[in-house]
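Colleagues,

For the teaching module next term, I've prepared a clean inverse folding example: a structure given as tokens, and then the sequence designed for it. I'd like students to try predicting residues themselves before seeing the answer, so please don't circulate the second half yet.
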């Protein structure tokens, strides 16, 4: 039942095929780089078929942007639009990569013997997601609606105006607890102690770290359980009251932001198949 819940709509047909294509391409060559002048092709999907409508960003680097763009001087409407233009392709690229990795893990559950490449693939994921149990790993790899990711990034970064978004590629306000972690000092401390936030080389790295945080953090166990039962964003966010000290007030803000900015429409967007084959390994 769990697999049927994941592999739905077009993914039922394309994910297994894409997984093979992507893995073959990944073994043949390194990931290509995209320049700022190139566009990222995103397909908007309706409930019954593919709309012939593209969401295109023509100036942002979704996978490995290292210098975030300042949105401070823009009007509120422009800032929100540009923030979505920056975040959406990057979120979709990471989300799809995780979906493909999870599908491979699910296929491995049925294998009687794993190949050497399977074991190497798994060892990296097991270390990152802190489990050697394939069923637990597949649960942790399961993604959730894009609208939640966008809403949390918007709240935590002030729609891309925070210092940590601009200088550390950290739109989610993720803290750094080890001095071995690349980090930036916050301007103010907490209870007389210094506070540091994580610093990332690019947006993709921060989005991957955000997914890993929700997949492994002890305080997000309820969220992980709930995402196995539903993909409705307004239900799922009820279990994110532990993400902020503000608790239920934070959840209320998330809900208001998702609804008032119509973020759920982005839950039906997917990365174009050509982009997948060329860019994700």
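(Answer key — instructors only)
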């Amino acid at each position: 039942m769990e697999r049927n819940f994941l592999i739905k709509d077009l993914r039922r047909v394309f994910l297994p095929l894409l997984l093979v294509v992507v893995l073959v391409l990944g073994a043949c060559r390194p990931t290509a780089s995209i320049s700022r002048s190139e566009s990222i092709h995103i397909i908007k999907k309706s409930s019954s078929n593919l709309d012939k409508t593209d969401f295109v960003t023509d100036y942002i680097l979704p996978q490995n942007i290292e210098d975030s763009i300042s949105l401070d001087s823009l009007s509120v409407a422009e800032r929100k639009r540009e923030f979505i233009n920056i975040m959406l392709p990057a979120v979709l690229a990471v989300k799809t990569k995780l979906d493909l990795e999870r599908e491979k893990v699910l296929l491995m559950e049925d294998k009687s013997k794993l190949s050497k490449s399977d074991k190497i693939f798994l060892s990296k994921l097991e270390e990152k997601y802190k489990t050697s149990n394939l069923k637990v790993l597949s649960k942790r790899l399961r993604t959730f609606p894009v609208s939640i990711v966008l809403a949390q990034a918007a709240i935590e970064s002030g729609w891309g105006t925070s210092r940590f978004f601009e200088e550390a590629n950290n739109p989610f306000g993720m803290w750094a607890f080890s001095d071995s972690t690349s980090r930036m000092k916050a301007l103010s401390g907490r209870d007389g102690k210094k506070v540091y936030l994580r610093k990332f080389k690019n947006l993709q790295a921060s989005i991957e770290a955000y997914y890993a945080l929700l997949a492994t953090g002890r305080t997000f166990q309820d969220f992980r359980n709930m995402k196995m039962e539903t993909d409705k964003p307004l239900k799922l966010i009820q279990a994110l009251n532990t993400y902020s000290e503000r608790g239920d007030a934070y959840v209320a803000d998330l809900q208001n932001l998702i609804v008032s900015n119509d973020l759920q429409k982005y839950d039906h967007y997917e990365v174009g198949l050509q982009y997948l084959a060329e860019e994700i390994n």
